[in-house]
Structures are given as C-alpha cells and as structure tokens.
Specification:
mainly alpha, Tetracycline Repressor, domain 2, TetR_C (chains A, B), DNA-binding, DNA binding (chains A, B), homodimer, 9 helices, 194 residues
Chain lengths: 194, 194
DNA sequence: GTCTATATAATGATAGAC
DNA sequence: GTCTATCATTATATAGAC
C-alpha cells in the first residue's frame, strides 16, 4: 500500500474514532508510520487529508444503504437495513462529523456529509413508498417524514448507546421503530361499501 | 455575577457550541472576561470546569423532560414534549457530549450524561405505559424500547438537521414519529367474545 | 517521494506578587 | 480572589537536502 492510501486509511479510522478537530497530524503520522515529509507531500493541509478520508468513510457506508433499494419485499428490506449488525459504541463514521466543531463551521467539510445523508434519504423514501403501495404501511403516513424519522432513530441510537456505554439502547431504539412500523399496517377493511 | 458563576456559564455555552475537547481555557477567558489567575483559582483544571458546566447544562435540560411526567392526557404530553420548540441547528447540550472524543474516553465526564439520559428514559417509559393503559397505544408495544426509540428520534434529528443546515429534517423526524405513534392505536375490538 | 530540521502559534497550566 | 509572567508541550505546518 502506498503512502497516500495509507494516510487516507489512517485518517479515516481516526476521524471515526476521534473526529476531525481532535485528530492531529501527529496522530496520523504515528499510527500510519508515514513520515512528516511524505505526509505534507501528499496533502498540503490536515483539512485536505480529512476531506479525502471523509469521502472514503462515506464510500464505505453508502453500499449498505443501497440494500434498501434492492428487489423483494419492501418491509423485509426495511427490517434488514434497520437490523443490520452495527457497532453502536463506535458510532456512525459520517454522522459523527456533524458534532465536530471544526467540521460544523466549515461548509466544505460539511457538504459531503449533507450529500451522503441526502442520498440515504432518497433510498428510504423509495422503499417506504413501496411499502405503502404494497399495503404494508398506512397510506396516510408521509414517506419523506418517515424516512427522516428512521434515519434519526439510527443516528440517535448511537448517541444513547455511547452515553450508556451499552449497545442495548441502540438495539431498543431500532426494535421499537420496527415495532411501530409493523403496528402501522393499514386496517383490514371491514364493512366498507363501494 | 461572581467570577465562578460566570466561568461556569461561559463554559456551558462553549461546550454546547464547540464541545469539550475543542474549547480551550483561552476561549473561556476571552468570552467571560475572567482573568487567568481567577480561572485557575476557582477551577484547577479545564476538566473540573467542564464538569461543573456539564452539570449546569443537564440541570437546564431536565425540567423540560419532566413535562412528560405532568398530569393530563398521556398522548398529549408525549406530543407536547416531542413538538416543543427546539433549535435543531444548535444540537443537544447533553447529547453532544457523547461525540466528544475526550468526553467519551473519560468515565467521569461521561457519567453525568449517562445519568441524565437514564432519567429522561424513566419519564418516557412512564408516560408510554400510561398511554397504553389509557388505550391510546397498542399493548404489544414495549414502553422500554419505545422510550429509546423516541429519545433517539430527537437526538438523531439534531444530527440530520446539522448535516443539512436545515431545521426541516429534525421537524420531519419528530412529526413522523408522532404519526407512527398515532397509527399505533389499538384496533377497536369487533366481534370479541367474553 | 521521503527525510530531518526548524518555526510560529496555541494549549493547559504554574509561580508569585498584590 | 485577581493579576501578570513564565513554561513545557503540542499543533500545524515550512524549508531544504537527498
């Protein structure tokens, strides 16, 4: 693996573990073993390296979300994505960036995060519409809203899990969301006249 | 206002705005106007000051959550708390701490956050149980889980809103959660024999 | 591309006078 | 309690040789 790739790899890990502001060029050098000269040869600032690492972290995450787009039963896809194994105590590589003060105030660093979430939102909306169309979900629910609700359940689940240093609250949050979705099946239509 | 209180006040603001790791003693001095000597007279480390500021931020937040405990219609209390005005782009003073690398690795700083969330969870569980008892919510839903789901919706809503620099996703997330709760009313019992 | 040396500013304090 | 001075360490690079 060449130095450049090694730097991006290492910075990606550190940004997941410690965020951007509190990760120093020194951390990156020490973990990667790449020297000072090499580092600033490939990336002229810490921010440049962070941008590459962030794109990498997003690229890592988006394929999982496209599981929502796959064929087959919509509700089953929703369950599969929601319940997919996730290390709650590590948090979300991408979501974490929104809480980093130096990312928050830097539109260039925030932009890829916004794009990534927007993309996931599109997938959620699609599968939720399909669930409504398939009669698995009441048609008075708004898929756009619900998509944000379910994304928030995951992002917020990480927060709760880290606070308690326990995966439990994360698993509760998503199980509860799934239970609500299941409870929101359309009512069987009884005594309905043409 | 005396120096000590001014320091805690200022640190509380800064921890909400920038977290702990990326807030320096200098930030605190400059914003508060309190001198170096005073600062280290009252708090011997940055961490000590942060601890006091964190307790203050928690104390600010808990009264709102006790709105859930109040008397009256359970579902109305749920809606009121969920829909209460919140500046989504500022994020949660308490939840934010879970994403700060230096808080995360410091059990002493993390403990108050865990306690605060645990306390809010208790209030949520109680009101959800009441909603079930009042026939406003299906009795096959687990209040413990659902409490985590709803807390996560709020915490995650902040993440989405900050990512998009738009309050919209936060409002969507909570409105969607409320819609799901409403859709999870027990079915009217038809043809049920004694 | 990589290495070592150097540089400026900020961080997180401590010391001691008033 | 507050002030000013000082300090060791780290952050974030630059410079220039190899």
């Amino acid at each position: 693996m060449d130095s450049r790739e090694l730097l991006v790899d290492t910075m990606s890990e550190l940004m997941w573990e410690r965020g951007y502001a509190d990760t120093s060029p020194r951390h990156v050098r020490e973990r990667s073993g790449v020297g000072q000269g090499s580092m600033y040869h490939h990336f002229s600032t810490k921010r440049d390296l962070a941008l590459a690492a962030l794109e990498r972290n997003i690229a890592d995450l988006l394929p999982a979300a496209s599981e929502l787009d796959g064929p087959g039963d919509p509700m089953a896809r929703i369950e599969a994505y929601l319940m997919r194994p996730r290390a709650a105590l590590k948090g979300c590589k991408v979501g974490r960036m929104t809480q980093d003060p130096q990312v928050r105030e830097d539109p260039v660093l925030l932009a890829p995060v916004a794009r990534a979430f927007a993309e996931v939102h599109v997938s959620w909306v699609r599968v939720l519409r399909e669930a409504v169309a398939a009669g698995q979900l009441r048609d008075d629910l708004d898929p756009e809203q619900l998509a944000h609700t379910l994304m928030a359940v995951l992002q917020g689940g990480y927060v709760l899990a880290i606070a308690q240093q326990d995966q439990g609250p994360f698993d509760d949050a998503r199980a509860g969301a799934l239970a609500l979705l299941r409870a929101a099946k359309p009512n069987p239509k009884i005594n309905r006249r043409k």
